[in-house]
Amino acid sequence: MLELRPNCECCDADLPPASPAARICTFEHTFCADCADLRFGETCPDCGGGLVARPIRPDAQLHRYPASLRRVHRGHRYAPPPKPAPEPARWA
């Protein structure tokens, strides 16, 4: 059974079971869309596998197969890419 982890392992953002922002790899490492896309380029920093949208378990099945309550936070050392410097003002 797929473990639906409740948070991003990088930034610790909450990821409820029906969150469209959850990304997951084949080893069930779980990240938010922002970390997956902006920090890791859709590649899992733990195993090197691809990060894809996590399937959403139907509400009717969550009662029988609940999402995990165990939070995993590894605090990855990867930082977001630096923001570009603002353009200097141009005088007319």
UniProtKB/TrEMBL annotation:
Pfam family, one: DUF1272
Composition skew (Pro residues), residue ranges: 79-92
Source species, domain of life: Bacteria
InterPro entries: DUF1272 (IPR010696), Znf_RING/FYVE/PHD (IPR013083)
Chain segments carrying region Disordered: 72-92
Stated name of the protein: DUF1272 domain-containing protein
Lineage summary: Bacteria, Pseudomonadati, Pseudomonadota, Alphaproteobacteria, Caulobacterales
